[in-house]
Specification:
Elements lengths: L1 H31 L10 H10 L1 H35 L1 H16 L2 H12 L3 H25 L3 H9 L4 H38 L5 H10 L3 H29 L11
Helix pairs in contact: 2-10, 3-4, 3-6, 3-8, 3-9, 3-10, 5-6, 5-8, 6-8, 7-8, 8-9, 8-10, 9-10
């Protein structure tokens, strides 16, 4: 127990020490680096902005979180369904996979104005943007996991009389879950990008909208405060999803990907 507690303490301490070091370097540059405050405010100025502007930051963070979570749920569902469909139906994969790859060839920044035009300035365009950002990692991760199932397992299942559907449900999908979990983690980390990019292009609320407004007013401390809130929100969301995956895939060894 003592060893486990020490290991958990070290896992928590390492990122805190790294963060403290980065903040110290940031503060030194802001104080002694001859950088104007409107370009690089110090940590103390950002901390004051976090407190004094909390009435703006809190609802903006809630809006971005809602867009991110909704986009994450829809993107994981759509990407997982498409990956399963392509694994079951080879012709579907040959027809659809080029379109999936093509969707990643167009930068999301280029699509954002069109999505705002088509879906409006509300939440819908930001959710669609988040879905587009995370769709490919989920589809690719689960698709790779399904294609790389141990052939011996499938041969054994077929020898025992399992139908194609039972092989998929009882062999291929369980074997692909670690790969799927990796895709979901990656999607969780990048999902806020889609929401914030959409807010930059056109929105009336959200952290991206707040950063855009602060930029036009040269409120750099507020921009950094919004960025800090976004970073903390993303880390907490990733941690929550990671813990959920670890509990869901409890049978995997602790040294596996979901540890």
């Amino acid at each position: 127990m003592t060893g486990n507690a020490t290991a958990r303490g070290m896992r928590l301490l390492r990122p805190l020490v790294t963060l403290a070091g980065l903040v110290a370097v940031w503060g030194a540059l802001a104080r002694w680096g001859h950088v104007p405050p409107y370009m690089l405010p110090g940590p103390d100025a950002v901390a004051r902005a976090l407190w004094t502007q909390r009435a703006q930051l809190a609802p903006a963070a809630l809006t971005t979180l809602e867009e991110t979570v909704l986009g994450l749920v829809l993107g994981i569902g759509a990407g997982g369904a498409l990956a399963i469909g392509m694994a079951v139906c080879a012709p579907l994969r040959r027809w659809v996979m080029p379109m999936v790859l093509l969707s990643q060839a167009v930068p999301v920044f280029a699509l954002a104005p069109l999505l705002v035009l088509w879906f409006g300035f509300g939440m819908a365009s930001k959710v669609v943007m988040a879905v587009l950002v995370i769709f490919f990692p989920v589809t690719s991760a689960l698709g790779d996991g399904l294609r790389q199932t141990e052939p011996g397992w499938m041969d054994l299942a077929r020898t025992m009389g399992a139908t194609r559907w039972r092989v998929l449900v009882h062999v291929r999908l369980p074997a692909a879950l670690p790969s799927f979990a990796s895709g979901v983690r990656m999607a969780t980390a990048i999902a806020p990008i889609g929401a914030v990019v959409g807010e930059w292009v056109g929105a009336s609320s959200g952290l991206g909208f707040l950063m855009q407004t602060a930029n036009t007013r040269f409120q750099t401390d507020l921009m950094f405060a919004a960025l800090a809130v976004l970073a903390v929100m993303t880390v907490l969301l990733w941690w929550g999803v990671d813990r959920l995956l670890a509990r869901a895939l409890y049978w995997l060894p602790r040294h596996a990907d979901v540890d």
